[in-house]
Amino acid sequence: MFELPDLNAVQRFAQALAPLIQPGDVIELKGTIGVGKTTFARALIRTLGGKEEVPSPTFTLVQTYHLDRLTVWHFDLFRLKHPIDIYELGIEEAMSDGLSLIEWPEKMAPYASQHRVEITFSFYIGEIRKASLKAHGHWRARLSKLSWPSDG
Amino acid sequence: MILLGIETSCDETAAAIVSEHGIQSNLVHSQLEEHRPFGGVVPEIAARSHIEYLDSLIKRALNEAELNFSNLDGIAATAGPGLIGGLIVGLTMAKSIALVHDLPLIAVNHLEAHALTPRITSQIDFPYLLLLISGGHCQFLIVDGVGHYRRLGTTIDDAPGEAFDKVARMVGLDYPGGPAIERAASQGRANRYALPRPLQGRAGCDFSFSGLKTAVSRIIAKGKVLEKDVPDLCASFQEAVADILTDRLRHAAQAFVEAYGKGVLVVAGGVAANGILRERLKATANEIGFSFAAPPLSLCTDNAAMVAWAGIERLRLNMVDDLTAAPRARWPLDPNAAPAIGAGVKA
What we know:
The complex is a heterodimer.
Chain A: E1 2-4, H1 7-17, E2 26-30, H2 37-47, E3 62-66, E4 71-76, H3 91-97, E5 99-103, E6 117-125, E7 128-135, H4 139-143
Helix pairs in contact in A: 1-2
Chain B: E1 2-7, E2 14-19, E3 22-28, H1 47-64, E4 74-80, H2 84-100, E5 105-109, H3 110-116, H4 118-121, E6 128-133, E7 138-145, E8 148-154, H5 160-170, H6 177-185, H7 210-221, H8 230-260, E9 264-268, H9 275-287, E10 291-293, H10 305-316
Parallel strand pairs in B: 1-4, 4-5, 6-9, 9-10
Antiparallel strand pairs in B: 1-2, 2-3, 6-7, 7-8
Helix pairs in contact in B: 1-2, 3-10, 5-6, 5-7, 5-8, 6-8, 8-9
């Protein structure tokens, strides 16, 4: 469990996670509206070298970022009605060699990857957020290497 | 000059016939009369639903206008920005028709179509100041002419339409959230809940709505919002959005004045259908010496008439595309605009 008292902490969290990421990875971002899922996605895309704007993908459902290391697919499935529609958004291509950042992954639950890390954001004390991580498949071994910087 | 317009960039499948004298037919699949008995069809994002409906929709658009393909002077289709699957369907359809009937093809930017919409029904000359507000966008632009846009500011996080939809969802109102919140807000007190106005008073014309959305979610999470409180919360939220937009308008108008003097504010996009926001923007525009224009409500949300019209504007200037035109998921109106690098802003 990581405490996220401010945006700097979110940025440090993204920086700690970035070196572990490999092509084909799936990171699920869970938590209620306004808890900071898109803010974290934006921080991670910046950390991976994204220089473009990172708008909320709620309306467009997916935004892609072609970065040096890999292509990031930032999904927001809030508006998805049928789980199978995820295939029309390019999830297969994303999972083959990109990084899939998936907000509201519950909407595609039947098609979830076996190898993924779930990050659940929640309000902790007042406006302070926390992030809890749960690894599946080969993310289990990798997540043990995550080192959390104690300060900025 | 008569064009067929096709729109498939997001949820709506739409086809329209528009001439220089006005709209001949304008059909949006989800709004067709035969779906009414079933309570209206919720739009589909899937490309396959565009494939299913587009063909018959084009035929109906032609029939309603009492025309056939041989009467057309060109085909315009949205080529971006949007969901790539839908864009491929619409643009491929347009290319096929253009090829078979030997007609010019115009690959239209969806945002440009919104930007030029007020010129369908009103005499509005370039340049003008444009506020584009929708589910996915929020930007101020100076429209110098067809194809010439300078972005003054944009949202650094969420678009206002998204904030409306999410707040509606949080308080248990219907989708789409904009009309539902406007209805509820009309019965509420806007001063009941203190909500933030992110970026208000700061320099520049950028927007931020994420913090406002979060503030509403925090009020609800505290569990004190009962059904009777929903109108007040909606009114307070809508008022905050209006305050943000009008505050940013003053800055954008100043930038326009420095370039051209006082002019016209045009508000377009789905959120421009909100009556309260329109009134507030109009009042502020008039107060600072700008006149105000917005498309009729039926042309604010996604439609194909605006695509056909943008096609007419481009065809007049010989800005046509060949059959290699590619759909573009991302297609900014002002490719030279510096990216707005934000990460959520505290109010």
